[in-house]
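Customer escalation, tier 2.

The customer says the design service returned an amino acid string that "doesn't look like it belongs to this structure." They asked us to rerun it and document both sides in this ticket. The original structure tokens are below, unchanged.
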């Protein structure tokens, strides 16, 4: 799978994920028009969405209702606006079986996006002439 981001007008970016999906991004004012989520917002949303998916998988495996379950992500920044923590909360309804809470949390924590951040991958950047 190849992911390709194309620069558009202003601060807008269109990112293609293979041949299937496109994600529009923009920057908030004054740098952009705030017409779409910023790339950083998409990055944070991917952590929450992946965590939610793995919580949902646990519920399906054990035939548990997943209605009312949400995942909140609260980013924590230092004074230099550098991300220092991600606080994830899996919110469950009071009716959720207590004997499954630990399993739900363990499975939600298996999200590969979260695990990738925990292992700090090496990222390379280079210029290639078209």
């Amino acid at each position: 799978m190849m992911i390709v981001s194309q620069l558009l007008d202003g601060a807008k970016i269109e990112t293609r994920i293979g041949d299937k999906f496109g994600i529009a991004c923009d920057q908030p004012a004054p740098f952009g028009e705030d017409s779409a989520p910023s790339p950083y917002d998409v990055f944070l949303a991917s952590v929450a969405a992946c965590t939610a998916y793995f919580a949902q998988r646990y519920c399906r495996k054990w035939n548990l209702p997943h209605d009312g379950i949400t995942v909140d992500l609260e980013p924590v920044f230092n004074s230099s606006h550098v991300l220092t923590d991600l606080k994830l909360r899996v919110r469950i309804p009071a009716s959720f079986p207590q004997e499954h809470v630990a399993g739900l949390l363990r499975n939600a924590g298996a999200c590969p996006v979260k695990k990738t951040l925990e292992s700090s991958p090496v990222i390379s950047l280079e210029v290639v002439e078209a």
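Tier 2 assessment: The sequence is consistent with the input. The mean pLDDT is 96. The domain at 38-130 is CATH 3.30.300.20 (GMP Synthetase; Chain A, domain 3). Sent an explanation to the customer and offered a walkthrough call.
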